[in-house]
Amino acid sequence: MTDLSRCIYPVISAVPHAYRAQNGRHRVQTLSRLARQALQICAKKSRIQLGDLSKDDVGAPQPFDDHFWSLTHKPRYVGAIISLQRTGIDIEEIKPISNGLYKRIAKNSEWRLEPDRSEKLFFRYWTAKEAVLKAQGLGMAGLSKCTIRRIIDQYHLEVLYQDNRYFIEHIYFNGHIAAVVQNHLECRWTIQQA
Predict the structure, then answer these.
(1) Residue 30 and residue 13 in contact, taking contact as beta carbons nearer than 8 Å
(2) Which of 39, 99, 129, 141 could make a disulfide contact with 146, Cβ separation 3.0–4.6 Å?
(3) Is the Cα dihedral 149, 156, 184, 139 positive or negative?
(4) What does the alpha-carbon distance between residue 89 and residue 170 come to, in Å, rounded to a whole number?
């Protein structure tokens, strides 16, 4: 049996081309269904049986059998993670952004951690903070309480949320970046293309 106390299995799955043109509520339902399919793959790799996948009143996933879970979906990719620790996952496409968004996502002290204020760094910060907020069961309202504490290397960084430290692992693929709350666990990523 896999030991989730030492290893996690984040799964990223490409959204099939046939679903990418959908709009509105139908699109959200399709992406949510595909993200739950990614969670099934994650559960299989983790050798656990998925339990009741319920959410609280604000839409935060509720643990099942002491397992925490998180989903993410974007137009081209969905993702999922299960862990014995609070966890979160996020995916973003690396693309041009406005200067105003730099100020919104991080303080000057955070930007000074890395001299190259690139779009890649912006999305590292964004996905890391989003993953931590998901681990906390919060939305973007908690963004101002999330601080990048240090950049460990191009794949790992540390985020401080109130008095809690979170270690994040990133992966890059097809112009996208994904972040997962890793907290010193080994990550064995699965990326499935369409």
Answers:
(1) no
(2) 129
(3) positive
(4) 10
DSSP single-letter state for residue 185: P
* C-alpha to C-alpha distance for 134 and 141, rounded to whole angstroms: 11
Q: What is the CATH code for 7-192?
A: 3.90.470.20
Q: Yes or no: say if 173 and 194 are a contact pair by the CB < 8 Å rule.
A: no
Instruction: Check pLDDT > 70 for residue 71.
Output: yes
CA 16 to chain centre: 20
What is the Cα–Cα distance from 66 to 82, expressed in whole angstroms?
Answer: 10
The stretch 130-154 carries a mean pLDDT of 89
Long-range contacts of 181-184 (CB under 8 A, 24+ apart): 181/81, 181/83, 181/85, 181/86, 181/87, 181/88, 181/89, 181/131, 181/132, 181/134, 181/135, 182/8, 182/156, 183/85
Q: What is the pTM of this model?
A: 0.93
3-state SS class at 164: strand
The tens digit of pLDDT for each residue in 23-36 reads 888 888 999 999 99
User: In Å, what is the CA distance from 23 to each residue of 1, 75, 116?
Assistant: 41, 10, 36
Domain ranges of the chain: 7-192
Q: How far apart are CA 168 and CA 60, in angstroms?
A: 20
Contact 110, 121 (CB under 8 A): no
Does the pLDDT at position 1 exceed 50?
Answer: no
User: Which DSSP letter does residue 141 get?
Assistant: G
Average pLDDT, the chain: 91
